[in-house]
Amino acid sequence: MLGAFDLAGYRAALMMSLDQVRGFVTVAEEGHFGRAAARLQITQPPLSRQIQKLEREVGVRLLDRTQRGVVLTPAGRVFLAEAQRLLALAQAAPDTARRVAAGELGTVRIGFTAVSGFWVLGQILNQLEAALPSVELVLSEMVSSAQIDDLRSGRLDLALARPPIDATEFNFRLVHQEPMVVALPAAHPLAAEPGPLSVAGLAGAALLRYSPDQARYFADLTGRVLAPVAYTSTHYLTQIHTMVGLVAAGRGVALVPSSATHLKLDGVRFRPLAEHADYPVELHAVWRRAAVNPALLSIVALLDRLRLDA
Prior knowledge:
The chain is α/β, with parallel strands linked by helices. The protein is 39% helix and 22% strand. The strands form four sheets. It has a five-stranded mixed beta sheet, sandwiched between helices. Strands 10-7-11 form a three-stranded antiparallel beta sheet, covered by helices on one side. The protein is rod-shaped.
């Protein structure tokens, strides 16, 4: 009876040899021991013994013998579906193992900064998925310092992060550079002027600043840009989208990566920075030197072939 086919019996079935499981499936599909033996290219007596041993170890009758052949018991019908699934997994296992070892199959956990998600991240993911369609990419948005911590702990495989990066602990590769631009409230006197805006033109401006703790990279970079001029600071922020939103509200002027222009917020005007070549914003792919994930190593091998728009 079906009730006799309990969990213990199912577990026992999984411990059976693949030959026994294959023999049962073939008999069930053929409905006849003779035809099943011919299909398996063995004689009928050893096939009968395989099925008998399988039934003893599972603990239930799987087949009823009739004058015309065999029919499945209720337990046998349940077992057949699981046995067919088991054989399919066994058949696929060697190829799956080879693909995992070759880095063609697997999972890579990727961290990224919010600003990279405005434009660059999508391009990177599209190119990686086109080259490695069977590798699952699991994304986590976080600031660069948190990404490095998660790389160190093993919670991430790859970080898309800002410098500085400890070269003794991590491998890294520059994947994108972009210029800084000036974000201005639409009503600001400088917003309507054409062409690049010099740093000198920001003298006396009310500037939104980056938090030196939570946005250290941008705090240091903009500090170098603004070193020649005097200005006032309004707020200290961490996220680029928050900064652009406050510019739109007239809370100040900000220096942001050019990819922030893709936010398209009303009330904000962007002007190139005349000195942009001296202050590029860098994004690096970072991974542990001791990393052994084959799928990650396949992605690393593709990094030099990425083609990213500004």
